[in-house]
Amino acid sequence: MADSSFDVVSKVDPMEVANAVNQASKEIAQRYDFKDAAASVEFANEKFLMKAVSDDRVLAVLDVLQSKLIKRGISLKSLDTGEPYQSGKEVRLEAGLKQGIDQANAKKLSKLIRDEAPKSVKSQIQGDELRVSSKSRDDLQATIALLKGADVDLDLQFINFR
C-alpha cells in the first residue's frame, strides 16, 4: 500500500484580502469618528499602508481592517504589523502579509512532528511548505490535530490529503 500524505502550508487568498481592504475603506469613509481624520487604508505588493492624523486614529484604522480580515476568514497570524510613525502631517502604519512557511518555522514544525507525532509519520521541507507522509491515515489525522494545537506564529492550512 502506498503512503498517504498531506501538505502543511501558510497561504492567504489575495481576493479575500482585496475584499477585506475594500470593505474597510468603505467603513472608514462612512464612519463619523474618521470624518476629519484623513484616514485611509491601501494594499499593494502584500503590504498594507494605513494613514491618519494621529496615532489613535491610525490604530482605529488597523482595528477596522483586522475586523474585516477576520470576517473574510483570514487569520490575524498572517498579519505582520509594525509601529505607527510620523510622516509629515500624517501618521502611518505599515503591515505585511505573511505567506509561506519560513525555514526556521519549518524546522520547528518538523521537529515537533518527529518528537510528538506517531512514529510512522515522516516530514519533509519542500520550499515554503511541509510534506507529511505515513502509511496510516489515522496517524496523519492525529498529526493534523497535533499541528493545530501547536503554538506557532503562523496560520496553517492542510491541503492535498491523499
- Beta fraction: 25-35%
Quickly name the level 1 CATH class of the largest domain.
Alpha Beta
* CA-based gyration radius: 20 Å
So what's the oligomer here? single chain
Q: Care to count the β-strands?
A: 9
Q: Report the end-to-end length measured between terminal Cα atoms.
A: 13 Å
CATH superfamily of the largest domain: YajQ-like, domain 2
Helix content, binned percent: 25-40%
What general form does the structure show?
Answer: elongated
CATH topology of the largest domain: Alpha-Beta Plaits
Please describe what this structure looks like.
Helix 1 (14-30) packs across helix 2 (55-71). Strands 2, 3, 4, 5 and 6 form a 5-stranded antiparallel beta sheet that branches. A 4-stranded antiparallel beta sheet has the order 7-8-1-9, with helices on one face. The two termini are 13 Å apart. The chain folds into 2 domains: 4-11 and 101-159, Alpha-Beta Plaits (2-Layer Sandwich); 14-97, 2-Layer Sandwich (Alpha-Beta Plaits), CATH 3.30.70.990. A hairpin with a 2-residue loop joins strand 7 (122-126) and strand 8. The longest helix has 17 residues, at 14-30. It is elongated and about 65 Å long. It is of the alpha+beta class. It contains 4 helices and 9 strands.
Task: Itemize the secondary structure elements and their pairings.
Elements (H helix, E strand, L loop, with lengths): L3 E6 L4 H17 L9 E5 L2 E6 L2 H17 L7 E3 L3 E3 L2 E8 L5 H14 L5 E5 L2 E6 L2 H13 L7 E3 L3
